[in-house]
């Protein structure tokens, strides 16, 4: 099986949105009230994803044998807006690979960057901790979206 990580192409936003929604429905939606589910789904439409990526945001796609299996989106040059892996491909290192590519791209854009942030869904806090993130406070909720603010300290990785 051949695995690659590359920038998400503009014509792949519909495919990426479908993967994100499938993964969300599988692991996150059961933890959210209806308001949070609707809020999230309005954020991941192909149109909204395309609009964010045409600005300052960027995304990487993980592809296995020609099939999209994961997506990471970064906004504001340092915030992981989304990191999703297809349910049947989770726990295979794909999320870690996507995060590594995103981190490298963030540092290329701003070599002085000292932290990457994420608002982790409840079911992903453990994964982000394994990736080196630390919680910045307790779980919060906004518009039905439950999340824990977390930070990856990059200052320790620089010479």
From TrEMBL:
<protein>
    <submittedName>
        <fullName>GNAT superfamily N-acetyltransferase</fullName>
    </submittedName>
</protein>
<dbReference type="InterPro" id="IPR016181">
    <property type="entry name" value="Acyl_CoA_acyltransferase"/>
</dbReference>
<dbReference type="InterPro" id="IPR052564">
    <property type="entry name" value="N-acetyltrans/Recomb-assoc"/>
</dbReference>
<dbReference type="Pfam" id="PF13673">
    <property type="entry name" value="Acetyltransf_10"/>
</dbReference>
<keyword id="KW-0808">Transferase</keyword>
<dbReference type="GO" id="GO:0016747">
    <property type="term" value="F:acyltransferase activity, transferring groups other than amino-acyl groups"/>
</dbReference>
<feature type="domain" description="N-acetyltransferase">
    <location>
        <begin position="3"/>
        <end position="155"/>
    </location>
</feature>
<dbReference type="InterPro" id="IPR000182">
    <property type="entry name" value="GNAT_dom"/>
</dbReference>
């Amino acid at each position: 099986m051949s695995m690659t990580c590359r920038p998400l192409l503009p014509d792949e936003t519909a495919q990426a949105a479908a993967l994100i929604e499938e993964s969300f429905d599988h692991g996150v939606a059961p933890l959210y009230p209806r308001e949070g589910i609707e809020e999230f789904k309005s954020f991941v439409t192909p149109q909204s994803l395309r609009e964010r990526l045409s600005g300052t945001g960027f995304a990487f796609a993980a592809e296995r044998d020609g099939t999209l299996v994961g997506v990471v989106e970064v906004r504001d040059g340092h915030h992981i807006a989304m990191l999703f892996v297809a349910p049947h491909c989770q726990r295979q290192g794909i999320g870690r690979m996507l995060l590594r590519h995103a981190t490298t791209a963030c540092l290329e854009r701003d070599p002085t960057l000292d932290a990457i942030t994420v608002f982790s869904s409840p079911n992903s806090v453990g994964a982000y901790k394994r990736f080196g993130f630390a919680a910045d406070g307790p779980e919060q909720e906004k518009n039905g979206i439950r999340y824990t603010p977390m930070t990856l300290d990059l200052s320790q990785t620089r010479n």
